Amino acid sequence: MHRISLVALIAIISFPTFAFAGDELIIYSGRSDNFIKPIVKIFEDRTDIKVTLHAAESTALLNKLKLEGDRTDADLFISNDAGNLQKGAELSLFQAIPTNLASQIPAKDRSSENLWLGLSARARVLVVNTNSPTANKVKSVFDLALPEYKNKIAITYATNGSFIAGTTVYMLAKGETETLNWLKGLSENAGRNVFNKHSKVVKTVANGDADVGLVNHYYIYRHLAKHPDAPIKIILPDQNNADVGIAWNVAGVALSKYSTNSKNALKFIEFLVSPEGQKMFAEVNKEYPTRNGIPTAPEIPELNKLKVANVPMEQLGKNRNKTLDLIDKSGLQ
């Protein structure tokens, strides 16, 4: 708590003052409150704009936007998954973000039409129990489907947005047949260790009830912050020359097509992509900033030392239905 407070204080001091009248901003947020509320609080303090968050699962909020159409109150849509953002773009639910803002985020981490921007990134990694031989053996996410890992792995449900996105990356990099076999292997090996949250996967590995889990990287550091002596460590998978690299995904923001308050909405986006806002994602959330030149939190692996799969984030949405079909064929729940 002291660390978050200090980061927030630094950000309040360093953020430029935006000079415009106070107003309200309504955000449909598919992100955990832990990730977004610290940044919202600073924005409110600096601008006198009241931000109302409607929080739910990203997919549910996207469906809500679709059903509401031009009757929606939403000014912004924040999602924890590039796939949902791209789907919203394809459903014509968003309006383009001005180039001067959009260009601050690399092209691979945003819509080609600037209909959404990736704000922070996460890596799909392996968490291992250091008391298990697996800790020094597993090298690839595809290892998890090998027969020797039966009843030794933990995963989230296949309906999890990050699981779907990661599977899309593997499908595009390795092909449908190999990815389908991998999914079937996961189903066979996970047994009862399938959870609705990444935090439960990490806890299961830390407790020794599984040797290895597939998670987003920051859940490992969140667990270690609370339990510094936990017998777990991160494995960066698929890093050899012939490997696909780490699956990448971004959380991001889109401007509602029917926003009646786009001026303030764009001010919030400006806030999110600013160097100070990007530092907040890095320090508080342990995510990777998408804006170039922003350092990561010191405890997480440096981005320039990672081999990341060469899949533009826009493709996570464009291939989402194909991925869902593949998951259905595998029988994985």
Task: Please explain how this structure is put together.
The chain has 333 residues and is an alpha/beta fold. The chain has two domains: 2-121 and 250-300, Periplasmic binding protein-like II (D-Maltodextrin-Binding Protein, domain 2); 122-247 and 318-330, Periplasmic binding protein-like II (D-Maltodextrin-Binding Protein, domain 2), CATH 3.40.190. The protein contains 13 helices and eleven strands. The chain has helices at 2-14, 33-47, 58-68, 82-90, 99-102, 161-174, 176-190, 198-206, 217-226, 262-273, 275-285, 314-318, 320-330, and strands at 24-29, 50-55, 76-79, 94-95, 117-129, 153-156, 194-195, 212-216, 232-235, 248-256, 288-289. Strands 1, 2, 3, 4, 5, 6, 7, 8, 9, 10 and 11 form an eleven-stranded mixed sheet that branches. β1, α2 (33-47) and β2 form a beta-alpha-beta unit. α3 runs parallel beside α4 and α6 (161-174) crosses α7 (176-190). The longest helix is centred in the first third of the chain and has 15 residues, at 33-47.
Write the CATH architecture name of the largest domain: 3-Layer(aba) Sandwich
Question: Could you list the spans in which at least 5 consecutive residues all have pLDDT below 50?
Answer: 1-22
CATH classification, class level of the largest domain? Alpha Beta
Per CATH, the superfamily of the largest domain is: Periplasmic binding protein-like II
The helix-strand sequence is HEHEHEHEHEEHHEHEHEEHHEHH
Largest β-sheet summary: 11 strands, mixed
Strand content: 15-25%
Global mean pLDDT: 91
Taking all Cα atoms into account, the compactness measure Rg is 20 Å
Q: Please give the alpha-carbon distance between the first and last residues.
A: 36 Å
CATH topology of the largest domain: D-Maltodextrin-Binding Protein, domain 2
Overall spatial form: globular
Q: In DSSP terms, counting alpha (H) and pi (I) runs of 4 or more, how many helices? A: 13
- Report the strand count: 11
- The percent of residues in helical segments reads 40-55%
Counting helices, strands and paired strands, the structural category is alpha/beta
Number of domains: 2
